Amino acid sequence: MKFLLGLLMLVANFGVRSYFRGLENEQRMEDLEKENLHQQLEYLRYQINPHFFMNTLNNIHALVDIDPEQAKSSIVELSRLMRHILYEGEKPTIPLDKETDFLRHYVSLMRLRYADSVRVDLELPEETGGIEVPPLVFVSFVENAFKHGVSYEEPSFIRVSMQADSGKLIFKCANSRHLTHPDDSRGIGQENVRRRLDLLYGSSYTLHYDVRPDVYDVLLVLPVLPEKLPEPAES
After folding, report:
1. CATH level 3 topology of 2-223
2. b/e per residue 49-59 (b: at least 16 CB within 10 A)
3. Is the pLDDT of residue 234 over 50?
4. What is the reported pLDDT for 216?
5. Burial of residue 122 (number of CB atoms within 10 Å: 0-12, 13-18, 19+)
6. pLDDT at 17 over 80
7. 20 to 30 Å CA-CA from 179: which of 22, 25, 69, 219?
């Protein structure tokens, strides 16, 4: 009886230690996966930012000789964009109202370049209800709309809208297409955005492109986050 009791205690002790060792291993794997997620996100952010700045600086360079005063205004707008990227771009999520302010400054900058040659409609919510979103996601679509949707020979338009509805954030971006500029390749910025969304939302988001002869439409639907995404792991 003593032998059986001792054997049972030994087995129980082994089982308890194995159980806690399993929990420890699961936690370690979870920590490693979380750290890997953050490393991938950081890598994608660093790819997006130089690409974004390169295009914006090229826009300002085009204005310097044409209209110095507009170039000065562009530099002011760019400083606001840089402030957003420097202080908000490293965070997993930020309040939506900061991201919509960023989009307004970006569109303002682009309007200085194209003046009245492009019709730009921008509809962004004034009240965002504390919604959190990943930074620098929406601007990639707007940037490409200006890049691919503007023609100096034909009337051009860009339409951007965003609204929160039934626990979802619905973002739409449409631009004109032209036979003289039919290339709808979206480049590294768009690919990085999709990869970021895959990492952050898995299969719970929708990204749809609708290509018609004269219009290119983008629809992005994000679930309203119930909580902030985890902070990056400390190095």
Report:
1. Heat Shock Protein 90 (3.30.565)
2. eebbeeebeeb
3. no
4. 93
5. middle
6. no
7. 219
Q: Where are the domains of the chain?
A: 2-223
pLDDT at 213 over 80: yes
β-pairing verdict for 168-176 and 132-133: unpaired
pLDDT at 140 > cutoff 80: yes
pLDDT given for residue 153 in this prediction: 80
Token pair listed for 215: 């219009």
User: What gap in Å lies between CA 56 and CA 24, rounded to an integer?
Assistant: 48
> How many C-beta neighbours within 10 Å does residue 166 have?
6
Parallel/antiparallel/unpaired status of strands 156-165 and 118-123:
parallel
- Copy the structure tokens of residue 201: 């939302």
Question: When comparing pLDDT for 104 and 88, which is higher?
Answer: 104
Residue 107: exposed, middle, or buried by beta-carbon count in 10 A (0-12, 13-18, 19+)?
A: buried
How far apart are the C-alpha atoms of 203 and 196, rounded to whole Å? 12
User: If DSSP codes are grouped into helix, strand and coil, which group holds residue 67?
Assistant: coil
Does residue 216 contact residue 231 with C-beta atoms inside 8 Å? no
